[in-house]
Amino acid sequence: MASFLARFRRAGPDHASLLETGLNAFEDGDLEAAQRAFEAALAARPDDARSLNLLGVVALASGSPEVAEGRFRAALALDASPHGPWFNLGNAFAAQQRYGDAIPAYEAALARSPGDFATLFNLARAHGDAGDLDNAVHAARRACAAAPEHAGARIELGTLLVRRAAAHAETSCLTEASGILEAALASPEIDAAARHNARLFLAEALTLAGQAGAALPHLQALHAAAPDDLEGLIKLGNCLNTLGMIGVAAPYYARVVALSPGHLPAISSAISSADYSAELPPSENTRNRRSLMQAFADPRRATTWSNSRDPARRLRLGYVSPDFRSHVAMVLFEDVLRHHDTSSFEVFCYDAAIRRDAKNRALRELAAHWREIDALSTDAVCDLIRADGIDILVDLAGHTAGNRLMVFARKPAPVQASWLAYPGSTGLPEIDYLVSDAVTTPASLAHHASEMIWRLPGTRFCYTPLAEAPAPALPAPETVPIFACFNNVSKLNARVLALWQRLLAAVPEARLVLKSGALDAAPTRAWLAGALARAGIDPGRVEMRGGSSYEQALADYAGVHVALDPFPFCGGLTSLDALWMGVPVVTLEQELMAGRQTQAFLDCMGVAELVAGDEDAYVRIAATLVRDRARLAVYRQDLRQRMLSSPLCDHAGFTRALEAAWRGMWQRWCQA
Question: For residue 455, what are the CA distances in angstroms to 88, 437, 648?
Fold first, then answer.
């Protein structure tokens, strides 16, 4: 500020005195006094650009960026040569979130002062806020070069590198980002806000690099310092979820919902985590789901549509998903897209994926229309769907990550349905139908859904086995009995482990193999070891295996005699994989959809004898079966063929049944 005073004194004694008074008041935080002094200076010299610039600075500091913008423009109209008014104009635009205007203003300032740190720093932020992360990183690197010791600049660079990695599925810069942020955290000069930001993005960098276990202590420290920070709570919950500890994550999601009742990702996570809880009664789960989704009642919900009510015409069918990529849901969806009757259905895919890959590119070839919506607002997506004239809009995600249920809450299409990735009701009244089957959702349990149940014949989805899957093989004859579960460890709650302890006690020679990618992380292994100990299971009888390729996971079934299904959230694709490899899966009948998937597969294949009606039956079936090597050999030989002969692998037939469902829904709407 002293250099400013020296510069402004050149205007003359009276004028300089007014400017000095204003600057001193500004330094003291007295914005009203500063404004009076600068206004007096401007009155004395109406053509003085410096007085106008300083009045703009006061307006900006007072929270009036529009007024400030006018002052800076007026100053530049008188004299466009100084750096300061251009820099300040950029700040005024940024304060109005007009980043497209802020960036050229900062560039103009840099043309007059090329190495100015503050301008480079703010330019980096403006590019980042505008979503141009490549130019943001470039500007941040220039800022760090201009002030190598500035911890804030290093944190900004690290943060932007992480954001770019997340946006572009780019992992190459995560090591650099982690190093920058770790070094910044070690610096004593950063304040609490900068430390919070550095820790948050360091945890994100580690998570993106597949090191969720290393990210966890940073998120726990962040939560301890700021217990009600929304972003910290969400990331901590998501990290625990990634590590297979969704039960531990549930209270954090619940806290987010309490702090921000309309926060859809947290509400979806809270609803999903409830599906894993063995303590929550199904009726309470259903009530909570519907109550939480009331937050999305929207007065902008459409009630009329211009779609022609012709029951037989070619229909415009829209699928919405964040998982149009290498994802478990696409194993069940790709062949449906391939077999659609394009003479009866014009297919639109609304792609909400934040990362795209070769599978995404392959799927695009199978749809008539492809719309990328990940960067679009709810309003924009609804406008797009209406412009496309969609007749039936299908949610493929439910409450899984990245869903766009807020779009469905606006009812942009006259008929809306939920199907595929999420085994349960959305709880959203604007979704008309839930696609299921008679075993997964029998009429006696339909009250758990807010949607009308549309039951497909045979099965609610089809399975596409891995082409490279090995042939089914039995363990060596001398192998001890091996029970296994390759499900997400989040499904291994206290009731499941207590039942498995009973089973292991009934078969003292048996061992248990648990396999999940989450078990690569030390915190997950420690948590699970504690849970096993509390259940009374000897750790010497349990083998924990981490992640592997899909092909290797299938090959690992050659060492398994019997697969154990968890509850109340049972296996989906995991059960199908085991059955494809000839391994019988013992399941416990449940009430909600999430716990009835394996039962539906077994019924569809004609092996319902593997479904237990209660816990005693579960132990009896599994214990008897694991010792019956002859029966196991029959299963190993027959299960794959049973699956191939069932609706589970009849992709063309399944697609016709699904299309009949879409047509039936449409005809009902036409008749309404």
Answer: 62, 4, 15
- Which token pair is 530? 């504690």
Tell me whether strands 511-515 and 542-545 are parallel, antiparallel or unpaired.
Answer: parallel
The upper half-sphere exposure of residue 64, i.e. CA atoms within 13 Å in the direction of its Cβ, equals 13
Both tokens of residue 444? 């006696």
| H helices present in 209-245, as ranges | 212-225, 230-242
Instruction: Give the strands of the sheet with 542-545, arranged side by side.
Output: 542-545, 511-515, 482-485, 562-564, 585-588, 611-612
Q: What is the DSSP string of 457-471?
A: SS-SS-----TTPPP
H/E stretch holding 77 reads: helix 65-78
**Tokens 């100053």 found at:** 75
Architecture of the structural domain at 1-92? Alpha Horseshoe (1.25)
Q: Please, are residues 420 and 333 in contact by the beta-carbon 8 Å criterion?
A: yes
Please compute Rg for the chain using Cα positions.
Answer: 30
pLDDT at 449 over 90: yes
Gap between the Cα atoms of 33 and 273, Å rounded: 56
- Mean pLDDT across 370-384: 96
Lay out the sheet containing 433-437: strands in order across: 369-372, 345-351, 315-321, 392-395, 415-418, 433-437, 452-456
All residues at 6 or more sequence positions from 142 whose CB lies less than 8 Å from its CB, including other chains: 120, 124
Longest CA pairwise span in the chain (Å)? 106
Alpha helix (H) ranges present in 410-493?
A: none
33: Cα within 13 Å, side-chain hemisphere = 11
Q: Which of 109, 114, 205, 189 is nearest to 157 (CA)?
A: 205
Provide, rounded to the nearest whole percent, the portion of the chain with pLDDT above 70.
98
Could you give phi then psi for residue 348, rounded to 5 degrees? Answer: -115, 130
Spatial CA neighbour of 57 closest among 12, 19, 14: 19
CATH superfamily of 482-649: Glycogen Phosphorylase B; (3.40.50.2000)
- What's the confidence (pLDDT) of residue 13? 45
Torsion angles phi and psi, residue 321, rounded to 5: -155, 145
Instruction: Tell the CATH topology of 315-456.
Output: Rossmann fold (3.40.50)
Q: Answer for the pair 430, 409: CB distance below 8 angstroms, yes or no.
A: yes
Question: Are the C-beta atoms of 354 and 670 separated by less than 8 Å?
Answer: no
What is the separation, in whole angstroms, between the first and last Cα of the chain? Answer: 73
Token couple for 398 = 């439910």
pLDDT band at 82 (very low <50, low <70, confident <90, very high): very high
Domain boundaries, the chain: 1-92, 315-456, 482-649
Q: Is residue 3 predicted with pLDDT exceeding 70?
A: no
Residue 611 pairs in a beta bridge with 587
Nearest Cα neighbor of 506 from 562, 451, 466, 444 is: 562
Residue 439 DSSP symbol: T
Measured distance CA(603)–CA(283) in Å, rounded: 25
